[in-house]
Amino acid sequence: MIKKVGLILWDVLVKAQRVVMIVTGIATILLVFVPIVLRQIGIPFTGYEEFLLPIAFWMYMMGSSHGSYERNQITADLLLRVLKGKPQLGLQALTSILTFLLGVVFTYWAWVLVQWSLSTGALSSLYKIPIVWGQSAIFVGLVISCLYNFVYMIKDCRNVFVPPCIAQTVEQGEV
Fold first, then answer.
1. What phi and psi, each to the nearest 5 degrees, are found at residue 123?
2. Torsions phi, psi of 92, nearest 5?
3. Which domain does 9 fall in, by range?
4. What domain count does the chain have?
5. CA-to-CA distance for 18 and 77, rounded, in angstroms?
6. Could you report the per-residue pLDDT of 33-48, keeping only the tens digit for each?
7. Strand pairing partners for 130?
8. How far is CA 13 from CA 17, 128, 155, in A?
9. DSSP string for residues in 133-164
10. pLDDT at res. 23
């Protein structure tokens, strides 16, 4: 039951990320395209960058966390390609542990940044958009990435310490 709920929440999170990426991608394109068209017909749209920046932050951070979900971030894993068997699994687990721990540190720093933005009440200069809207994307994206990295870290560590035949029967619910 808990596993089903977890899988449903996992799928909802991935789908929500994809929706945010699509919506912010379209908004980014429009916020680059519309001012150009308006400029050509003589209508200035000054300060559109104030709208563009937070939207681009959300697009980038949802894309980055989605990359963590797919495990297709850019890596320097040459050693993982050379090693085979237990050493490869061990190095993969170590990499996953370090990735998760670094993610936790960066998430903490992002939280401190959000708190600072809230305490200062910083606003954009022309349209008075709260700066925290863009900066909160960093925190949310890192929280989601940490969630994915935590799950993958557990899986990678289990692959090292639990023999494959036992891990497979546990996944199927047979003990």
1. -125, 155
2. -65, -40
3. 2-171
4. 1
5. 27
6. 999 999 999 998 888 9
7. 123
8. 6, 31, 19
9. HHHHHHHHHHHHHHHHHHHHHHHHHHHHHS-H
10. 97
